[in-house]
Amino acid sequence: MEDIQNHRDYRNIDIDQVGVKGISYPITVLDKDMGEQQTVALINMYVNLPRYYKGTHMSRFVEILNEHSRRISLQNFTVILKEMKERLTAQSARMEIRFPYFIKKAAPVTGAEGLMEYKCTFKGTLVERPDLVIMINVPISTLCPCSKEISDYGAHNQRGEVKVQVRFKKFVWLEDLIKLVEESASSEVYSVLKREDEKFVTEKAYRNPMFVEDIVREIALKLEGDPNITWFSVESENFESIHNHSAYAYVEKHKI
Amino acid sequence: MEDIQNHRDYRNIDIDQVGVKGISYPITVLDKDMGEQQTVALINMYVNLPRYYKGTHMSRFVEILNEHSRRISLQNFTVILKEMKERLTAQSARMEIRFPYFIKKAAPVTGAEGLMEYKCTFKGTLVERPDLVIMINVPISTLCPCSKEISDYGAHNQRGEVKVQVRFKKFVWLEDLIKLVEESASSEVYSVLKREDEKFVTEKAYRNPMFVEDIVREIALKLEGDPNITWFSVESENFESIHNHSAYAYVEKHKI
Amino acid sequence: MEDIQNHRDYRNIDIDQVGVKGISYPITVLDKDMGEQQTVALINMYVNLPRYYKGTHMSRFVEILNEHSRRISLQNFTVILKEMKERLTAQSARMEIRFPYFIKKAAPVTGAEGLMEYKCTFKGTLVERPDLVIMINVPISTLCPCSKEISDYGAHNQRGEVKVQVRFKKFVWLEDLIKLVEESASSEVYSVLKREDEKFVTEKAYRNPMFVEDIVREIALKLEGDPNITWFSVESENFESIHNHSAYAYVEKHKI
Amino acid sequence: MEDIQNHRDYRNIDIDQVGVKGISYPITVLDKDMGEQQTVALINMYVNLPRYYKGTHMSRFVEILNEHSRRISLQNFTVILKEMKERLTAQSARMEIRFPYFIKKAAPVTGAEGLMEYKCTFKGTLVERPDLVIMINVPISTLCPCSKEISDYGAHNQRGEVKVQVRFKKFVWLEDLIKLVEESASSEVYSVLKREDEKFVTEKAYRNPMFVEDIVREIALKLEGDPNITWFSVESENFESIHNHSAYAYVEKHKI
Description:
4 copies of one chain form a homotetramer.
Chain A: E1 15-31, E2 35-49, H1 58-67, H2 74-87, E3 93-106, E4 113-126, E5 130-143, H3 145-150, E6 157-168, H4 174-182, H5 195-207, H6 212-224, E7 229-238, E8 246-254
Antiparallel strand pairs in A: 1-2, 2-3, 3-4, 4-5, 5-6, 6-7, 7-8
Helix pairs in contact in A: 1-2
């Protein structure tokens, strides 16, 4: 059978990324407490395509995925990128995987346990050396300093979502990144809260009013102080309880 | 050219609904204050298909839409449904249109004006007599009665979304339905709030703590008392600021 | 501490459903080939609330979920519903769980294996007797009979999605429902296809042109003939390759 | 009342972007054929915040939006950005607006008219000089060259979506960008097609097989040849009819 993809192309245009997008796939990721954890990822895999080839071989991406028998981690991310480069005879490879990650979390007073979900993304590119980025989405609670200051009682508060991306020197636990973010909000968000816990988080938030600007600054401050982090971006979105739109802030920093 | 759709089908199965789904279309709707308002709708149009026909004629749905030159309202909804029945020689026709609807709203103290968006849906079926349903999504603010009661200061609050559906005897203004919902929450949600306004909504919410259960009951009470409403359902979802999931309540009532 | 939820309510309105919505949770489901499979579900849990109570106890829903230690199946669905009724002293309980389900599938000619994802939903209500519904979303490929008939060469085709819901007498394997749907399309959809496989599915689709109407009728015919199925609905949506909207058909049938 | 936002901040962290996100707003945009067109946009507005300020003034963003009384265009985009800088005493301002844009399009043989929707985005940043980017999403139809070559009859085809972003020297009509993309696919996508038209598009697609790689190269070639375009990126995603994932390609080019 004819291999159309291998035909010569004469348009003289290099393609930066070509591949498969939106593959839903069960994966196993490392877990600080339990060794590992099974979850479901959404995966994109791309390579470059030099100007003289007509097309890439799409089925090979999924074959590579299958051969790693669902075990995908920061550790073997670079191995997979290398295989993509080799099997598709490319100069660069890129993979993005996004998955929900679960952590057992105890309520602050009663210790009642529940599972919290955090959306996590690993993104990696390999040309000569691998460039890996971890992204984590963390739900938080914020209480408005202005509302507290000007009101005789109460203060509007709301759920927010923080998105942190980092480049790093050595392995980073998702658990540690998440903890860093949760400790930088007016209050944390929980899966199960009994009445004593609800009193605790309500009062804690009221004592710690923070603008969306404060959230990103607190987190940026901590990431700046961590020598293992070489680059970061921090985004915070507050789903304002008094508006039908969000308040948003973004900070990015190359450290080296 | 052969008209395959008109071929005889021998499987003996009536199809309840067949047609086009997900058409994005600019429409003009009636507006209580400004006469009319232009917006963009997502439209589904279906008819039934008797067992002896192989297929319906999909292009006719879009032609009917085009002929109404973008002017779609509760008033001519039934006219369009009739045309669908006739032009597609069907016994029943159904149309659903969903669109953002905008209302100018003044901040409670300063009167600063802003535009609020409300997602609105018209759903109609015509067999013998038309059956029309209006659905409106209204963002609100809720403050937790339990959190207020047990905490020494503050109370968790959050944005919520109420979804009201009604069947009715005579015309209903979207504006009136929206107002009814907004007055049934801990506080309303606004587009622009200056500091004086923020103080007002913060304190108002604190004085009016409501569970998600209270929201649906308050609205149900008002709809029960309105003789023009013959059926309703009320749904409220609170995007809890202390959890990463929602609190939810639902009430439905056939009045006649 | 005051239990506000237990306060008496005087508005005289029963609430049909109240509870938690949108909980992301890792679950284990039965798997015909591998015994069981771990995936991630989106879960809603509701009970009714009689008119004389002010509120339900939201944290108990998540506690019940936690106690079933992530093992959720059609088998213990009713057990969970019973617990919800008891622990929340309710007359009715409802749970909906939606999760991606993975099945290993071999390419039609080369046998190259890949994992296919199918979105699955279990929905159950318990008043006196349990009422369970299984819903499965299956991607398919459809080729237009009209386009094939009137064109000198080629025929437009596209991906479609079929949504089947069933009520049943005894246990139903997801695998069997999925197979029934996949065999009712112009061609099946695969995760990995080598060139020989691509030739096979291309030619198969061309030999089996089907309207969206044909898809729902073929499936309805098979479900009607299955004595284990007591009720079903079949929905098919074609993401038309020649339009920017979908073609859609729906059939529903109470058999008993 | 205290202006908390104006308080001094001591954390020494500049914030790159802070503002409002996800505002739904009716806007009027220029239309090549009809003068102008009313649609509904999703809007984000951000400014930078120097390290010594605690917070920005969120309500001013919406006030600026309101003052432009819904009339937003490429022409006055820079004016709005300037106002944002001034009113929020910032060094940089950024706005992103995304809206559906409608164009009347005639079927290729019968000339039957329908409205096509194209998602359009304007993104602009102003520090010293404005930097504007237009993004347009165009639905297309693609037919696989490999499938056509190796199969005895037929060829799999599907809807795809092309996303083009451009920087430019002088004004660019959305209509012209869209036309350029539509002419670079296996076939165009239409709102209404009669049988003669369906025959035309089916046969046209079969005569013009194109990989996702071909699509981005054809478009890149044309944009490279247009001296008015100073930078572009082209992305194409094919919703494969034989897979449950997409084929994807991306090209980007700085021309000057």
